[in-house]
Amino acid sequence: MKKIKAAFLTAAVVAGTVLAATPAQALSHCNRGTGTIICEYGVASVTSRAGIQYEFAIGTDLAAYARTKTSTTNWSNWSSLGGEWRSGLTVLDGDRKNLEFGIAATGTDGRPWVLAYAWDGTRTGWQHFIEHE
Predict the structure, then answer these.
(1) Distance CA 46, CA 55 (A)
(2) Above 60 in pLDDT, residue 30?
């Protein structure tokens, strides 16, 4: 678990340094599917072991959003994951036991936050990344 936390922290810090200093009003907006996202923050994507494709992006309200697609469905509408972010989202590898993957971003407090997806499709709430010794 310590290695996963270290990987989560590294990715979260990297994600947060890209555009953290850019004022929100200076960011441009792009249409993607049924929503509008912040262009500079981009879209992070991953496919789960069950074959579900996920896309993650930051909306114009600075909240995180997700949408999904399977081999038999079209992309869903964007669904809010909440928060207020100062970076794009980064997909992180899971621990092969409980966590399939995670997403990380830099919060308004300048600290990295992580939301993890379990193998069964459930997810945690946003949590400050805290590395335990």
Answers:
(1) 7
(2) yes
